[in-house]
User: Fold this.
Amino acid sequence: MTVPIPVQLRSNNMADLAYPDIQAYLKVCDLVLVPIASTEQHGPHLPLSTDTVTATQVASRVAKINNMIHTPAIWTGYSPQHMAGPGEGRGTITVRASTLQALMYDVARSLIHHGFNKVLFINGHGSNVKVVDPVLRKIRYDTGAMVGWCNPFMERYVGVLQGLMENPADETPGWHASELETSQMLANDDSLVRMDRAVKTLTQIPSWLPHEFGKKDGAPDIQFEGYSYFSFPMDHHEFTHTGVIGNPERATKEKGEEAFRRYADHVARAVAALLSVDVHVHTREFRDRV
Assistant:
């Protein structure tokens, strides 16, 4: 059970508010949500915005439940593996790890400068996880602020979605453009989903690896003799020719709505608990902002 923050907000999106609204909010709450994800190919049937929709849906729902503020989404992420070949037109927009780290740092430092003591990133893109630990630590060490990271999606870890998806594990229901993401995009805006193009695609090892190796999903690890001790930098198109990992054909709008509801309720309770954390910001001014 969560208790909404006692402040009147015309919108939970910070970009929709004027600065007196921010000032009024800061008098009663020092936490802000930052959705972050990517713009990348999601197979032939889903839009490039899929991961950003996930982050924004969860962040905005959490903000509404708790009457909190969230920022606009950071819509580009670390997606070098989704670029495919030059001129192929896959559409992915990626940034280098250093660029994403700098962007996250500057966003957080701006928020801390204005008076927020707690910054929680709501992530919708799995590969962002590979590069964020250094910047999260730098924000904390440089300012004393509380900074957190939340991954409300399902890949290998089923979590609060236990029992919701129908695909068996070997059809990777939580992976790229599979049952879960397709369901969530149907719930968000079914006019953007081309189910007539949806195709089941399971992963295979890249052609340059010996046949003794195996690959089960989109994680960077590779199996050998049934064990996962190896990983290689691989591009997405090397192990799935369509960009899909799994079977999107069992997706429904109802599953997507329920997934968003479960994630939002869970994260909202966690965020409410974080309000009691005592934080002492020692460096608030963002002096190095040029």
